[in-house]
Design goal:
- 7% of the residues lie in helices and 33% in strands.
- It is rod-shaped, with a radius of gyration of 35 Å.
- About 4% of the residues have low confidence.
- Strands 1, 2, 4, 5, 6, 7, 9 and 10 form an eight-stranded antiparallel β-sheet that branches. The chain has a two-stranded antiparallel ribbon with strand order 3-8.
- It has 163 residues and is mainly beta.
Length: 163
């Protein structure tokens, strides 16, 4: 644009008759062809994390477990998966075993992989919910709130012995 027009433009606004002066457009101001739209891809992921809190010793639930007069238990094989919705709480027991207290009053032990200690799960555990709603052997990772990450290598159901 001409520098003289820059100086006279405010005066041209005062006089509407002079404001009709056309100025040539600069090449930068000429609109070009529209740019093709850029295709953006959005992926939405959903992850559900389940937190299982620790429970007090099973004696408070009506199942004596640790004293001398209590019934003795035997471990019986269980399947490869346990429903997450059926777990009411956990309790660390032996060196590498967690006691899962189920909502239907069953007691299940979960043996952790080598190198994992049950005491790391004293404040509960966190597990990502799978599509089938189950916690399975060698599939799901159990995470403690202190940072440990372990897998279950076997489930066993505790059955009271009849003496």
């Amino acid at each position: 644009m001409n520098p003289a027009l820059h100086l006279l433009a405010p005066l041209a606004l005062l006089f509407p008759a002079f404001a009709m002066v056309e100025t040539p457009l600069e090449p930068a101001a000429v609109p070009g062809p529209a740019a093709p739209p850029v295709a953006e891809q959005v992926s939405i992921e959903q992850r559900v994390t389940i937190r299982i809190n620790p429970r007090p010793a099973p004696t408070r639930m009506g199942v004596p477990f640790m004293d001398e007069a209590s019934p003795r238990f035997m471990e019986r094989k269980l399947g490869k998966c346990v429903p997450l919705s059926g777990i009411a709480g956990i309790q660390p027991v032996a060196g590498d075993k967690l006691l899962l207290i189920m909502r239907d009053d069953r007691l299940i032990t979960a043996q952790l992989e080598k190198g994992c200690q049950a005491r790391q799960f004293y404040s509960g555990l966190i597990v990502n919910r799978a599509d089938d709603g189950q916690m399975c052997v060698q599939r799901d990772a159990l995470m403690s709130r202190s940072g440990a990450k372990c897998q279950v290598i076997a489930f066993r159901e505790l059955v009271p012995l009849d003496d």
